[in-house]
Amino acid sequence: MKIRFTVKLSCYSIQIGNRTSTITVGGVTRKYYTTETEKEFSNKRAELEIGNFEMEVPLAGGTGTLDVVMEQNLNIKFSGTDYGTVTLEGVIIAG
Known about the structure:
This protein has 95 residues and is mainly beta. The protein has strands at residues 2-11, 13-16, 19-25, 28-34, 37-40, 46-56, 64-78, 81-94.
């Protein structure tokens, strides 16, 4: 089964270069690349898409659950704090 992923950041402004990150879904790992972006949203928070990809996942019959671990390489500084790789974990429930 193919699943499409869209990676978004909610922010006021950002400047980020191309980054290599990984996602593991149901034991299948794939690298993906975020796009180089520089945006400022004039004192309002907005969602900014930094990556979009799809991958084949091991989900027989389109139903079941899959563990997801995403390691997003940000390598940015925000309000004086450095953020390197941010790890997100969750579960996809299908069907």
